[in-house]
Amino acid sequence: MKSHFLHMLLYATLVATFFGVLMRDTTRGRLRLAGTIWLVMVVGALLLAYLMFPFPE
Amino acid sequence: MAGQRDEGEGRLERKELQRTLGAVAAGWALPGLGHVLLGRLRRGLLFGGIVWSCFALGMAHDGRLALRDAKQPFLTGLQVIANLGVGPADMIARVAVYGSVVYRMPPATAPDAREIGETFRRRAKSGVSIYGTAYLWTAGLMNLLLLFDIWDLGRRRGVRR
């Protein structure tokens, strides 16, 4: 798989699930933390990419 | 009477410590197993699944199996530690990739230096190696974190929300 975007989604999902289960003991807490981590990773990366867009390589 | 009780508690404490240390060692040797040995089957299967998936993805994407390089000893040393986090699976992967369990870049005069160096560079140049390397390091670092979790569970510590 060469798609950077798909790798980012897969990686964020694995990491978010891992930390959600590791750091919280309730299902609700796990979902909240995993969701927050996933959103920060994915949306943060897209936002950073958008901010860097005007700069040349 | 009190002395007997203290002795009994001490024995229990030692037994519990041995059990926890055994689970930590098992968790390093086979990611997920440490939790299973402590009776946390679902947790062990989930964590094992995540770590093994990361490791498999890393190997499938030409992830760099780090070699300690004398030119950058600190950084490459940390990379090796991250790789070693998954336990013996890393050694098996090195045998499959380099032909032997090698952890440092061999000196130029070593007989296998050229072959190992070329294999290392070929994998690093692969278009997907950056993904693979991230997965491999993540698998190792996650498993190292899990060892602390196993320790906490074994010592009945760690209250979480």
H-E string of chain A: HH
Low-confidence stretches of chain B: none
Instruction: Please write the string of helix (H) and strand (E) elements of chain B.
Output: HHHHHHH
Instruction: Briefly note the structural class of the backbone of chain A.
Output: mainly alpha
Radius of gyration of chain A: 14 Å
Number of helices of chain A: 2
Short note summarizing the structure:
The complex is a heterodimer of chains A (57) and B (161). Chain A has helices at residues 4-23, 27-52.
What do these coordinates show?
- The complex is a heterodimer of chains A (57) and B (161).
- By secondary structure, chain A is mainly α.
- Chain A is built from two helices and no strands.
- In chain A, helix 1 packs antiparallel against helix 2.
- The relative contact order of chain A is 0.14.
- With 161 residues, chain B is mostly helical.
- Chain B contains seven helices and no strands.
- The model of chain B has no long low-confidence stretch (mean pLDDT 91).
- Chains A and B meet through helix 1 of A and helix 3 and helix 7 of B.
Fold topology:
The complex is a heterodimer of chains A (57) and B (161).
Chain A: H1 4-23, H2 27-52
Helix pairs in contact in A: 1-2
Chain B: H1 2-29, H2 33-37, H3 41-60, H4 73-84, H5 88-98, H6 113-125, H7 129-154
Helix pairs in contact in B: 1-7, 3-7, 4-7
List key phrases describing it.
heterodimer, A: 57 residues, mainly alpha, 81% helix, B: 161 residues
